[in-house]
Known about the structure:
mainly alpha, 6 helices, 0% strand
Amino acid sequence: MREVALTTDAVQTATGFGKRIRSAFPTWRVAAAGSAVWALTMAASAAINLFADGWQTTAKVLDVAMVFAIGATITFPFAYAAANLIAGRRRWEARLAAAFLCFAIGTIGITSALYAFAYRQHFAHTHAEAFSITWMFQFAFTTAGALVQFAATGARLYFPIGFLALAVVSVWFARHAR
Length: 178
């Protein structure tokens, strides 16, 4: 009988946690609008910085801006949910901090992963046969190299526009999302 009670408690806990996760995500309207605005802002931040630096061609700038836009689009609903889960119904300051961290880490993390994927695809033709030991080392070191390169050169494209947008979305989240 005790085993049945433990199982029932575990199911109720799991069900409650599932409901909490589902309720943490934004509505589809907030997700769509937020993703669009976040994507446009991050893409604009990257493009403006690259144009200001006199960087290569317009097509290359648009390629980089597209990676930033896709990363931001994917990030928004998950960062929103993560911030909701972390902050819960805490005070305004806690919600602000949770949003700031989740949107910053999420945006940089997902965008750098997309960059690493594109970087890996660029060098794939020089790598050994897929899933061989050599290929695994090449995959790991190419991915690591791409992440380091993004940290050194790509993350700067978020400043100052992306950083200001991060502050704005964090304040918006802290005041409106519940």
